[in-house]
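Q: What would this chain look like folded?
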Amino acid sequence: NVHLKDKNRQGVSMALNGGDTDFVDIFKTLKKVNYHKQFTLQMGRGILGDEVNEVKSQIEYFTKTWNCSV
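A: My prediction, written as structure tokens:
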């Protein structure tokens, strides 16, 4: 299982693709090694009280951008 998280250079957790993690390189590498198993997405919470919308937004981003299914 692959665990993905995004942080900025100061080490603060960010929304996925909102920090400095190179997801393009990560997904190119996963494709190169023919990885087709599950991965876990860990993200910053976003705005307090709006966590459900943040999760939905991140799932939508990843499914569209990286052709992933949930």
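The helical segments are 23-32, 51-65.
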